[in-house]
Amino acid sequence: MRKTLLESLTHGSLTEPAPAPDEAALAELAAKVDRAAQARLGRSLAIREVDAGSCNGCELEIHALSNAFYDIERFGLRFVASPRHADVLLVTGPVTKNMRQALERTYNATPDPKWVVAVGGCAIDGGIFRGSYACVGGVSETIPVDLHIAGCPPSPTDLLKGLLALLEHVSGKR
Amino acid sequence: MGILDSIPHVNAVPSHRPWPRAVVTEAGWQAAIDRLVEGGLTLLGFWGEPTAVHMAMLDGGSAEIAVVTYACTAGTFPSVASRHPPALRLERTIHDLFGLVPAGADDLRPWLDHYVWGKSYPLSGRNASRDVQPYQFLPAEGEALHQVAVGPVHAGIIEPGHFRFTANGEHVVRLEQWLGYTHKGIESLMQGASLEAAAKLANRTSGDSAVAYAFAFARAAEAALDVEVPRRATYLRALMAELERLANHFGDIGAICNDASFALMHAQTGILRERTLRAADAAFGHRLMMDVVVPGGVARDIAPDGIPALRTLLAEIKKVFPRLIELYDNTASLQDRTVTTGIVKADYARQFGAGGYVGRASGRNFDARRTLAYAPYDQLSFEVPVLEAGDVNARVWIRIREVEQSVELIAQILDLMEPGEISSATPAGRGACEGLALTEAFRGDVLVWLRLDGELRVERCHLRDASWFQWPLLETAIEGNIIADFPLCNKSFNCSYSGADL
Lengths: 174, 502
Hints:
The complex is a heterodimer.
Chain A: H1 2-10, H2 23-30, H3 35-40, E1 45-51, H4 57-64, E2 77-79, E3 88-92, H5 97-109, E4 115-119, H6 121-125, E5 147-149, H7 156-170
Parallel strand pairs in A: 1-2, 1-3, 3-4, 4-5
Helix pairs in contact in A: 2-7
Chain B: E1 11-12, E2 16-17, E3 21-24, H1 26-38, E4 42-49, E5 52-59, E6 64-71, E7 76-78, H2 88-98, E8 101-103, E9 145-150, E10 162-168, E11 171-178, H3 186-190, H4 195-203, H5 210-225, H6 231-259, H7 263-284, E12 293-294, E13 297-298, H8 306-330, H9 332-338, H10 346-351, H11 356-360, H12 368-371, H13 392-416, E14 433-441, E15 444-452, E16 458-464, H14 467-477, H15 486-493, H16 498-501
Parallel strand pairs in B: 2-14, 3-6, 7-8
Antiparallel strand pairs in B: 1-3, 4-5, 5-6, 9-10, 10-11, 12-13, 14-15, 15-16
């Protein structure tokens, strides 16, 4: 174990430079994020991930945000275990009818000010599951959405670009 | 002797490939259940249609498979689950989706149907309504017992499902799962879909097994259409399947250790997983390699710089992974958490036909790649690790050994692969036909059964994840363990929610 630990200290860092915030995301947020809410938070956001019926592909890439290459915590973004500790809900999936109530309850349990980021093609409009008897469709049909990140699944870099755009806005930098 | 020789049947369906499907009467249906109960055959799948039910069964000794079909003329069929418990959730699902009633069933509670779809029996093709009743968990009685309800929204970044623990102090007396939260109606979306659209749905049945599902779906369609796939395409498919296995096993080994608070391993395997996904992206243009395996072959060839990217990846794994194995093996505080925790009894693994590391860590020597030897695995040499202990530790070791095998397989494929065609045409106009295929995903065998019409549209498709037969064993594995060890046990199974909720 010592060898592995020492090597991690002496070798260079794997963490890559931050990507630029996504321009499209910035434009979407400009119209939505409440300036008054911006003042209340520092440059840090707690994220609660909610799988509303995804295929689990988006979860894999959201997980990757915490690995050494993307290291999401360096930006002040961190995943929390309860909606009551969260500023942001990161929602995936076509919102199955079996998950709709749980998603609504999670949203209601999240204190204001809060933001909702819909992740992946399914979360935008139901994606390839659209029209099924078992799916509601996009996340915005169930709870208000501030930002959409497209992709099937979006890559960790796409996710990071979107979340950095949100962070910039919330902290009132732009 | 073929499976159907011992099961009285009316007639065999001619256009079902590559294994036979036969229509049986009640006597044949009961004879098939007899064989499952005795243990001579293993239940591979159990699915419905508006007026029939099908069971796929495996003879592990001869590697033969057969499907039996019972026509539900009165809207009922003799219950399988009342005699063979592994069929229970599948039987409840058939009732939920098709409204067919298992006669003599002990448990007719809904499984996928949470009464919010706005209709009952969505695949039955008829308008019927069902009495809404609150979900009843099985009772557990005793003075000191209390219940802990967890989910559907969990604390981690994982899929939704409900776990109801009954505990005596710290010790779990019973765990009961209630799933179905991610039910998207995949099988209804399949109906009438083109091969291309259906393959996309198959890719997204369980995103972590996108390649395995696409592989199984493609092979089922090719079996139905009697199409041969070019050799190079089979190698490319296996390359992707083994990359997917590597990425998932790296993720799992780290996540299991992380649930025992050993973050160092998680960080290290996280790096290997990311390198694997980047190599996959360089080689096939998508990190999870979705939509590359298609009926007839593969949609695109490996990128020119893909092969060096894969060779670099293999070199990196060979350099780093042995040290991580040593780290796992020599960390007593970690072993203290994984050894003898969450034991799956060998009898249960055999009875449930548990696939993947869950079965192989409990002595069940089955791997679809070897037992069924589908192309190109019939041309490759590899070992299938099997252990007996059945605990979290054994499930970690199976993954470790499988990582080593996958590295060897990828190296072999890169050496053997020669230039050539990468797809065959899928001809229309051959009339209705049916196909069945199994592939080995990282967590176990995926079964796909489908029927195509004459215009290459899917008439009916059933996808069965390995998790169907693993989830119930997690309920048995946690008994007598402490609640705090549940995340560890759960992660060592890493069952799919989406794959089993459909």
